[in-house]
Request: fold
Amino acid sequence: MTQRIDDYALIGDLQTAALVGRDGSVDWLCLPRFDSAACFAAILGDEDNGHWRIAPKGATTCSTRRYAEDSLVLETYWETRTGTVKVVDFMPQRDEAPELMRIVEGVSGTVEMSGVLRLRFDYGSIVPWMRRAEGHRVAVAGPDAVWLRSEPPVKTWGQQFSTCSSFTVSAGEKVAFVLTWHPSHEPRPDLVDPHEALEQSLADWREWSDHCTYRGPYRETVLRSLITLKALTYAPTGGIMAAPTTSLPEEVGGVRNWDYRACWLRDSSLTLGALLAAGYVDEASAWRDWLLRSVAGDPADLQIMYGPAGERRLPETTLPWLRGYADSAPVRTGNAAVDQFQLDVYGEVMDSFHRAREAGIPAEPHAWNLQLSLLGFLESTWREPDEGLWEVRGPRRHFTHSKVMAWVAADRAVRALEADPSLPGDAARWRTMRDEIHAQVCARSYDPVRNTFTQSYGSQELDAATLLIPQVGFLPPDDPRVLGTVEAVQAELMHGGYLRRYSTASGAVDGLPGQEGTFLVCSFWLADALRLCGRREEARALFERLVALCNDVGLLAEEYDPVTARQLGNFPQAFSHIGLVGTALALAAEDQDPAG
Reply:
């Protein structure tokens, strides 16, 4: 039976991540990086596509689970008629090789446990050759090698191309399993003590969490979102993944299934803001540096997303042997949207560097010259239609949000020169550009009859992204056009108490069949817009409803279906958690300064 997307919890080592279900099964893991091929892909198919389950014999669902302290160490409890057992799942920050560790600990009584490990390399398509070596199980296929060991040793046997085990634990007893990956042409990495690794992991996360400066309402929820963002960070470069998964559907049984294992420029400004506001300057600086390296080059070649180390080639392919989560095919790897022209990313990049300057992050010597180059390219292209922030696969349009973000790019350049006149640049020229964009948007995107900004020039469609108009400073929040837009978006895009991105009824906007759930970050944007417009109680009520959607361990996917009351889309989603942090901190700041 397919588990709900929100039945999963996240563990990871800041270079890759795994999803662990309430049934005790690890159903998703890519090694050695977030964007590597999965060796456990059951979430996108079935058990034969790879998984690793450890649970009491005959049990189906755990009793309860939680993260230990403020960490990414997952504790799952199983209460049975013979006793209670705890399974601790984690991936220590690696010194050498990626390792998944699972420690089974008896809490009371005696519990009979069973385990099944099915390794399937290359997204569930390759059954490895299994052998014994040095008392361990070794799986090898092509470039991949995985070692399984237990402490103390547990008897294992092969069955139907899987490795099975059976053992008992009594109160106070512990059995640790360690799964280690390495390139098959290299020797096995040195053994790591799992119990020492657990203590070190808890200490690492405790130290990191203690740096959080936020002490306001919903602190635990905010910190869990920040921990999730940290977990999605590719430590060697500072890049932050949009999600650790691919092809979890926006509609069960539908085709809106995309690979989000990349770093989106669009997220950069909001990510920087969230990290800086919570006191994580080092992470914000690393993200800024990743951004600077990734966008370096010809401005005409700027992409909307890059790989975790700044890779540019992310070709989209389908994996026909996987039936998809709950039969939601196709399963995709890579993302063809990487080749789209999306005007708004220039604004996001310029705003990111602006936020970094305001926060006092030391500027790289060549950063301003790069921004000048981006501005020069934008000056000649902002009048062109684009695919927009939602990466539509329909025709290009003059999307309102894209033009607003082009205005942001020019505005941030002007403000940079006003703050530091020693910088080279033509402030008067960019003011002219800024004013021209502003006038055009107000003339061509605003519908005076309905008193709202529309999704694109001349369109009747609405778009949740227009809620960002006051947040980026394009118009003040008390402007009648802003107030009208908030009311119109609420009236037309609300569904079950949450917000859609836009209408998908006809498929004319994005060129795709089917529907999708409500988009969680858009609902956070609505809460922000309501707060800015003075509707504070409504903003807070919406925020509290959104927080209530977090699963039992505080995680959010990309979307939510209010009809079936289940999360949809890739999981967990950085954009959703960025929205949660931003809204929480803004509401708390307003509580401290109601006049502000």
Summary: The CA atoms of residues 265 and 291 lie 8 Å apart. The longest strand covers residues 99-118. The chain has a mean pLDDT of 94.
